[in-house]
């Protein structure tokens, strides 16, 4: 596997995305403080795994990944808003994220809530602004609807609610999967679906790409739980063992560490099977999948 | 003026709207607690002035107001989410709204924040779900974009930020207008614009209807400030004088009470001039404008 190709791809599109995000917010005619709060958390971004999946999906379909810039920006805005709101004192009450003070620690709770609200709202406008040469109104509307489903009470917000309700009690593996499929899985899956829609996937390709993303999302979360036990705090950017000290149910806890590692490999293999079925140029997506399953942070 | 016609219209469409809101949330496949929190605040709705403006605008254009049901539901979801978030302890810290405990007093802060997020997100999906027989994909996309602009950092959220920043200092009349145009005016204006787009207004009608709504939004807010001084607490459902005890700048304070009443009449007259120019069947809209300017709560 040639990770140099993925490295170059990642570097190029991460840069394009970050410049797009900066410009989009800069242009807003809004009180400076809210723009500053929006930029602060957008800039603090990490691996940009969702945008990367979107770009690589368009690439797999033989189209120009740049066609996905606005959709990628919208997805990253939604991801960022969810982190800002999750970090709030009444939610996870986190003071730091990726080594930086969280949004409400810098701007106060009220502005943090509003910055999240503004990012969420703006994401839909950004989808609407995709040029007609790139996507028809029908496709853009489908992107809006699917994004709302992935982010709302049937998706990410629902997962966050279930996660909060599941705290401090032992969950079944089905309950744990419900949380992960919704809290992180749906938006990750949407990133691939958006790429598929923008890249002109046919219905069978769309279905296989969705299934790929579904299993990849689970692999992502299992690896997250494994890292919480086996990771290095310096590399993770947060203390290890935070899940068990929070009494949160995790895969290693419910399945044992060996069982969790088996489950990770099973999900990864399943995701790759679906990818194979698309008959597309899947090199980059395959590499991203490997990266997700073997990452150390 | 025949207010019986407006009363009957209001009653009919308020009922249809409330049933639509209930059904839309009922159908969501989401954790029960978040649906309950969404329903709680949607049900607590007041005058439903924004949906009413939307329905009456479609009516003025000679189309079936029922075509606006989903758009009206979306607007009311956005209005409701904004109230839930505004009431939070870190924002206005209100325990009661319209005589009922606020969302976070019943469900806790975390669920209140998430219920707001879920309503905002769902509103865009609901616009996307307007049947093609009612609106083309192009119109629906325009509805999405305009709604995001009206609700986001360039609209309502921006107004809320400016409002918070303006607390405890004396504002100029321009600063006060900025707050009101953004915090309440933009979504009120959007309600009319959405009705115009759904009712098939031509560009000149759209422009005049927008200007009507702009001035009506200001009239609405001036009356709000007047009521805060002259209203009856029992009718208002909140104590009078809360603005001056909060040291908030208001129209009566900046313009004197007589000046504020003059300004109200000026805005109302301007709004009606634009309405006249549309050449449409404006009876209902005219009555709604009078109602807004003379309401006692």
Can you offer a commentary on this structure?
- The structure is a homodimer of 297-residue chains.
- With 297 residues, chain A is mainly alpha-helical.
- Chain A has one domain: Farnesyl Diphosphate Synthase.
- Chain A is built from 14 helices and two strands, in the order ααααββαααααααααα.
- Chain A has a two-stranded antiparallel sheet.
- In chain A, α3 (49-60) crosses α9, α4 (69-86) packs antiparallel against α6 and α9 (173-198) crosses α10.
- The longest helix of chain A has 28 residues, at 203-230.
- The radius of gyration of chain A is 18 Å and the shape is globular.
- The model of chain A has no long low-confidence stretch (mean pLDDT 94).
- The interface between A and B is large, with 51 and 51 residues.
Structural class of chain A: mainly alpha
Helical percent range of chain A? Answer: over 70%
**CATH architectural label of chain A:** Orthogonal Bundle
What CATH calls the topology of chain A is: Farnesyl Diphosphate Synthase
The CATH superfamily label of chain A reads Farnesyl Diphosphate Synthase
How many beta strands in the DSSP annotation of chain A? 2
Strand order of the largest sheet of chain A: 1-2
Helix tally of chain A equals: 14
Ranges of chain A where pLDDT stays below 50 over 5 or more residues in a row are none
Oligomer: homodimer
Q: What's the level 1 CATH class of chain A?
A: Mainly Alpha
Largest sheet: number of strands, sense, barrel closure of chain A: 2 strands, antiparallel
Largest interface: A-B, 51 and 51 residues
Q: Given the C-alpha coordinates, what overall shape of chain A results?
A: globular
Average of pLDDT of chain A? 94
Number of domains of chain A: 1
